[in-house]
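FAQ
Q: What does a multi-component entry look like?
A: The components come first, one per line:
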Amino acid sequence: MGALGRPGASRYAQSMDAKKKAATAWLRQQSAQGRKAASGAIVFGLLGTLFGVIQAAAAADLLRALIVRDDQPVLLAAIIFGIAAVLRGLMMMGADAAGFAAGAAGRRRLRSETLNRLLSIGPSLLRQGHSAHLAGIVVDRIEALDGFFARWIPAALMAILAPVMIVVVAAIADPVSALILAACGIFVPFAQAIAGIGAGLAARSQLAAMMRLESRFLDRIRGIGTIVLAGRAEDEAAALRVAADELRVRTMRVLRTAFLSSTALDLAAAVALIGIAIQQGDLILHAAHGAEMAAQSGRALFLLLLVPEMFAPLRAFALAYQDRGAGIAAAEALIVLPEGETDPRFVAEPPAAAPVTVAAHGISVAFEDVHLTWDKARGPALDGVSFRLPAGGAVILAGASGAGKSTVIEILLGFVRPDSGRVLLNGMDMTSIVPQALARLTAWIGQKPVIFATTIGDNIRFAKPEASATELAEAVRLASMDSVIAELPDGLDTMVGEGGFGLSGGQVQRIAIARAFLKNAPLLLLDEPTAHLDPATEAEVLESLKRLAVGRTVIMASHSTQAHMLTGRRLNMAAGRLLLGDAQKGVA
Amino acid sequence: MQDILPIFRLWKARTGWMAAGIILSLLAVLAGLLMMALAGRLTAAAVVAGVIAAPVLLRVTGVARVVLRYAERVVTHEATFRALADVRVWFFSGIAQRLAGGLGLARSGDVLSRAVSDVESLDGLYSRILVPLAGAVLVLPVLVVVLALHSAILALVVGVLFAVSAFLLPVLAARATAAAGERLAVNLSNLRVTVLDAITGLREVRVFGAEGRMLAAVQAREANLLAAQRDVAKSARLAQLASFLLAQAAILSVLVGLGAPAPAAVAAAFLTIAAFETVGGLPRAGALAGYAMAGARRVRATATAPLTSADLDEPQPLPRDSTLRFEGVRFRWQAARTPVLDGLTMEIPSGSRVAILGPSGSGKSTLAQLALRLVQPEEGRILLGGVDITELKATELRSRIALLSQATHLFDDTIRANLLLARPDADERALWAALDAAQIGDMVRALPEKLDTWVGEGGYRFSGGQGRRMALARVLLSPALVVILDEPCAGLDMETEQAFLSTLNDLGRGRTFVLIAHRLLGVEKLDRIWRLSGHHAVAATA
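Then the predicted structure of the entire assembly, as tokens:
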């Protein structure tokens, strides 16, 4: 299992520039929203710097007294120092708390927005990317955005406001030293910008590598049994080491550049400190007499103590620059998502016209010359399919794997839209039905129903969480699950694993049938519901399905062996077409 | 602490990188102390003595500090990433030994969270705790000695303040966040599980109109996570405040308590400021250590869970003969449930073709899991070539037996890579032969990218039947001498099924084929048929 890249990755590269622009615009919009939330952190931060300056003044006074040994009282300075220290500590707490709140609010908002978008694009997303990748965006990318809201936005403003405040204070004490401070201070964002460009580029490729590592991990965890039984656990561990090394190399590339900006900052701070020390030392040496020298030395110490105050917000800025990188990377991951939406087939938004709902009883279905191609290289999945099915009727789509049966079902489920042609439900174009209304109309049983890692009861109740115990028991009975449940010590409260661990294939299908009974929708779509079952179980499951089909419109995709078991009109499919004869009968 | 020890043991291999990081950090701390002390002395000396002393040394220490800090950052991060990669690989090997039979009731999202986030939480242990602690151990005596030159009491007071800030506060902070850290790790995992449920179940979510419910569930998990993070942040903040106030108290004591000579006193004051700066991050790091401990606990719990069937210390060598024999085997999935198999005795001779038939739930699939030591019989034993399989090395046993089960996984990779999993050195011809035998060669040949076609998550880009045949091709490609096919024809139509079973008749003589099925089509050429009924096997005629 060598290559980590996915096909189509290059497709994204083409639109790199457009994507970058979109990401920048998105970030700007987020910054505007984030700044309001971060204003508390900024106010606390500035007050903290102010108390820091007061502390520096008090400390300088105390030091001066130590050096010059004049008789001025030091008690006042000591008290001021102490009070300023306490206040400053509290301001730091406040800034930290405000930053946390801003980060939490930003994450909460974006996570809901992102998940909402994923849910509204729907199942077609799974054709484009690994579920771990998508989940990684919702969980980890959004978590990584915490720093963007909590640290980067306040730090970016503080890095301008606080140094300006300090330079002004320094200028009052000594203009030349203020100039040294200002010059060294300006050097920092300058160096930051140069280092930042490289770091930004590297940060993106680093995040891409991290997402790949995560997807790889989940895929290998899900298939861990297959790997171990193939005797490849050690090879996989080695491959994992290679992937982790790749991630490390990329991350270090980001950090080496990012650290350079911190180093530039250290350098600027050292230059400022040394410059002021030498310049002030010189001034003191040339001071005329004792009193002037005392005053001068107090100033000198004050200016020296301002240096760390000056560079602290710049340091925070340099550290938060990585958070900005995470912000850009997350923005790009989020920007890529709606690419599905630019493909008109996947649009799930309600149509411009007033949303239409269809009466929930008795659904007729009609396909009119429907074409759909998933992947151009593999040819059309549906190539001009037309048929009509009255309300309460049943159709069996028969044909080999890949004939297009599942595509018919996926269109009816609203997972995908035809490239051309129309699909009518009760004579109404499907595109004019809002997804929620469509969801109410349909029940679906697929080849591999998703079983969640929870109890059997909760798995069935997924179809209708508000279902009463009686309704649940009735659905279980109708799906012929009652005897199975009765044998389990914990009954409906028996825990099952992901993918149905603890259940047989037949039992998994029965859970799906029970879900469909519970939901009680007028249009029943069955996609090879008994594909993995042995004939005895299959016959039993089909018995339950027959019960379920009563009074509903049914479309069942099935390969030939099962097709006769359900009464209904049979349409044979091959290569995306209805076979001749059927097609004519179909448009009856 | 016992949770962190296996991880530290793992990091022994990284001693070189870690030691280098610590040494660079210590040098940088020393240069920083010296620079601050010199800057203070310079100013004071100018006042008192009228000379500018040591500007050259000041510049040297200034530059040295900058360079050393850069090197320290690069090396400590390099060391951290290498150490975390070690933990991830160790974790993977650990679960590989324990989850050979699949995830069972474990959630893949939770295991992923342990592998990703919980391992990540360990990243501060070295660079934010061990490295500054080493610095603190170095700084404390320097600080105390320098101050003691001025005043013994002052040295004592500042020394105690420093020790509290560097050593006691981080421990207290870690204790305070232990519970919240555990909640943070668990809630992050819960969030991941819920988000993964919503996304892997996108189809179910859409069909049952569960979008709103899923969103609400994710928001609820997120609220729990944020609450835990808020608690950890609050403790970290308090620890930070305490550390800041201790530093300020120390600086104030020095400023008020120092006496002559002035230049040395000012230098000592500056030194104190710099000394406290080196440990300023420790209490906050201590607060985060509560989370790291929870992470370590979760990583360890999964990676070192008891093995269901550990290898013997001195396993038997793999016998040449591949005859599989079940002797009086009794097995049940749960103690409260009735046995699936009871008193089962059955022999599958080496190189034979055997079918095991039985209705759904008769324990057919359990036989394969027993043979591969994925589960243990309650009674009886299973022999391979006359040797009890519990006396063999599990990896060797599994190299002899290949299994196609209902749970066989297709990886999100190319067809080629999925096939090569079974036999990494297989050539192109062997791959096609296996695909043809599985009746899917023509379909793959028609794909524009052929063997390099991506199969998608769990084989999503192909239909269920096509994916199943790819998994079948993979098992046929395997060099194992015993091949167990558990319902290889599920999901196939009758014609494909017949074609496959006919091909099977001509496949590799000398290998054992065990066909687990619910019925026979009549085209199979078999040496023996076993029928499972009433929890044991009955020989049937071939």
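Q: Is there any commentary attached?
A: Sometimes. For this entry: The mean pLDDT of chain B is 84.
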